[in-house]
Amino acid sequence: MAFPVPRSLSPSKVSSFTDCGLAFRFSVIDRLPEPPSAAATKGTLVHAALERLHLLPPDGRTLDAALGCLDEAAVVLRDDPEYAALELTADDEAAFRGDAAELVHNYFRLEDPRSVRAIGLELLLDAEIDGVHLRGIIDRLELDADGELIVTDYKTGSAPATQYERKRLSGVHIYSLLCEQLLGRRPRRVQLLYLRSPVAIITEPSDRSTRGTRRTLDAVWQAVERACDREDFRPQPSRLCDWCSFQAYCPSFGGDPAAARELAERLAAERHAAPTVAARPVLEPTG
Ligand code: SF4
Question: Which are the contacts of 13, defined by CB distance < 8 A and separation ≥ 6?
Fold first, then answer.
């Protein structure tokens, strides 16, 4: 029996599939749970703080206000089961908050938020393009001084080496394509703000890059459908294996993917039997 084909692709799913087909299968098709990660949870916190900051009137977007936004977002995050599952000690929590504050400080080294004219924050875009259902959440959509669109994505991990920049930009090119499809205008600029370094990686979408993004999406979607049909998702060992949650099921580490399938079917049956799932808390702005 073939594996179920995912309903949609997103920038993160495209990146997951091209990094390792088998990890994609475990995450997207089998929907195996992954342990919470302090890095991902910190990213959620900093994104929520910057979202709150950009909801303030422009003159109010100071560093002190941003740190206040971080405090507010941290209060909400405390109720998040993923945060609780990290089981941070008081010292761990102080380090976690201190590092998040440093990322917020670094954000101010990349741009002056008072000059940003955001028209969408944490904006969900959803469209069918060339027969592929695409979904993506844009951290920030804004207008420049000429009224042209700019797509911004915050990153709380390390900036890539120069040779990997193009691959990292592929996600924001998908956002650009979604904007073009839904808003009828191609963004003038798409940018990744790496808060750790801090460094901004910026590019201008063109006819050529748009064609390339469409071709990539088509190729990835066909490869996913084919892999589902043949139940054939292959491991692609790389340094990313060090952070992979699925080593126990991966043949490259002596695991058995069939065991993952059994677990996936058991989890799917449990989800089916318990249709009411506790909603994940949303970090709502208060300003
Ligand atoms: S351990 Fe490596 S090869 Fe195996 S599934 Fe994870 S990323 Fe892929």
Answer: 6, 24, 28
Q: What is the DSSP string of 149-205?
A: EEEEEEE-SPPPPGGGHHHHHHHHHHHHHHHHHHHSS--SEEEEEETTTTEEEEE--
Nearest to 49 by CA among 178, 230, 195, 181: 195
Residues with a CB atom less than 6 Å from ligand 1: 20, 22-23, 235-237, 240-241, 244, 246-247, 250, 252-253
- Specify the pTM: 0.89
Contact between residue 38 and residue 198 where contact means Cβ atoms under 8 Å apart: no
Tokens of 219: 């190729």
Work out whether the CA dihedral 244, 248, 251, 254 comes out positive or negative. positive
CA 52–ligand 1 middle distance (angstroms) = 36
Nearest to 48 by CA among 62, 69, 65: 69
Residue-level pLDDT, tens digit, the chain, 287 residues: 799 999 999 999 999 999 999 999 999 999 999 998 999 999 999 999 999 999 999 999 999 999 999 999 999 999 999 999 999 999 999 999 999 999 999 999 999 999 999 999 999 999 999 999 999 999 999 999 999 999 999 999 888 887 777 777 888 999 999 999 999 999 999 999 999 999 999 999 999 999 999 999 999 999 999 999 999 999 999 999 999 999 999 999 999 999 999 999 999 898 888 755 444 443 433 33
Q: Give 144 Cα–ligand 1 centroid separation in angstroms.
A: 41
